[in-house]
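#struct-help
A.M.: can someone run this one for me? Single chain, 614 residues.
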Amino acid sequence: MFSLLGEMQMKEQLQLELRNIFFEVMTKISPICMNKEILTDLTRELVYHFQQQGMGIYTWNECKENYELKAIYPESEQDIFVLTYAEHELPSKREYDWQNNFLYMPLRVSASHNAYLICHVNQKTNVFSQCTSIIPTIHQDLEKFLSVLYTCQQIKLKEKRMEFANSFSTRLYSKMNKSDILEEFYRAIKELYSHFLCQIYLAQDYEINPRLPVKLLEFTTDTEEKMSTSVFLTGEAKIDKQNDSTYLYIPLKGEQGIYGVLQMKSCSHEVRSFPKSDVKFISQLANFTGRAIESAALYQSSNRLVENLKLINETSHQLNSNMQLQEILHIIRRRIMKTSHCSEIGIVKIDDSDFTLLNESTPYFHTQRGKALINDLVHQNQQTHEAFFSGNFTKQNVPFRSVMAIPMKSGNQMYGMVILLHEEPYFFTFESFKTVQSLISHSTLSIFNTILRTQLERTVKTDYVTGLSSRNHLDQRISEHIKTGEKGSLIFLDIDDFKQINDQYGHHIGDEVLKQVAKVIKNHTRESDVAARWGGEELAVYLPDVSNEMSVSIAERIRTHVKRETNPRVTVSIGVSAWEKSEKTSVSDLFIRTDQALYEAKEKGKNCVIKKFQ
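D.P.: on it. Structure tokens below:
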């Protein structure tokens, strides 16, 4: 039907028909992408409209690195195409080409993706030989059409992968355990690439999960592990071909480091490479995994830090000012052994160049070999002035491989040393070393404070019955604080009917009651507060930098616990007063107001708290 038309009209007619074909194909099938269904429909329409014997479209397979017959019409032509034109025989040149009854048309679909249209020409109605100028136009329009299909396909693929990546990252970041994170990652890779064998190499210790193919990275001559190590060190994905298999290595990157390597191995010898888009997508999933491992490690490290801080805080609270040195050392030993899981612990007191082994040390240190080890470590510390930490300690006649020796220092003054031992090499982690070091540092302060407190108690007069400060010491502290502080509160306590206690039970019981009341006061005041015996059955507490309301609350708490914790049971009447810097109060004024408040408490019926503020 084209023979009656001029060549120009024929070209225009063919071009119009070609574009109608493109439109019909695109509107007939959804979604628009470069799949077999659309390409088969395209070849069918082209064969029908151009009255050719058959057409086939070959597309480039990035994995196999060759051309595959993607679509053909009619199917009866398949044997001719496959047998006569194997993939490796396809011409690689850019221009179209004739070979016998076949037209080869190379198509540039994208910068990295090519295709071929092969037409089995009908010699009776060979429109291409009648109008050769139409071939470049068909060539150009086909390239544009396939490019649109390929672009739509890539957009669809990106959307699908983005949706998968979002869902994957959401699941991943909800997990705070490395094993769970790796299991989620492995499951995702197998879901997407089920025909590949996977192996994960980790750079850090890992709790064994039998469900996962995980190994530790090792520097060996083994080809696979050598490549994994190389990727771990460079941080770059690599493709490697070994024998008939193709391997892909992807690093698991976090923000601050690389935590492992994913190895993917093709199960088919036909797979010769990995598409760049796949490498990029797998790298994205691997990076999510690396950051999730990093976050989980940070979370677990934070938890351990919190636990360590709680341990240190609890220890600090236990080491209160009322403890004797032996009690403090007992607590220190128990805490350190619980934290480090050491086999032996030695606590040494150092005076100048000599040392004394304290009784809290375990048996090994009381032996000759143990004392010799102490001597060596103390001497080494005097040279280096640093803590000693070794996981591979090798000294003759010492059956321990892991050693920690941490000095007990306050400023530049060294008071002693704590030595921890274990039989296994590398038993102590650096984290446990730092924790023990912190514990000892805080404990040293408590020991130092205990020594200072003992020295201070020798110089400050205290009431021998209650153990509280004397009235003179109280007067002095209040006078000093009124000059330098911003505010303060004073509490006077009088034991109700104390004379009856002495008359009924005797003065020794009266003294016991005084001690019990004093103990309640100590338990409910701070170390910075000053509790004193004012005289007879009257006691006083000065609270530096405590407001009116708080002082009344403290007084009420003391009153309640005195009634609950004394035997024989007594009650107290309490008067409370306070001062602030703006009031220009004298010590005498504060005493008078507090005494008046105490008098009113007595008059009101006893066992109560009365406040009197300026």
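A.M.: thanks! Residues 1-5, 85-89 have pLDDT under 50 and may be disordered.
D.P.: also worth noting: The CA atoms of residues 336 and 436 lie 6 Å apart.
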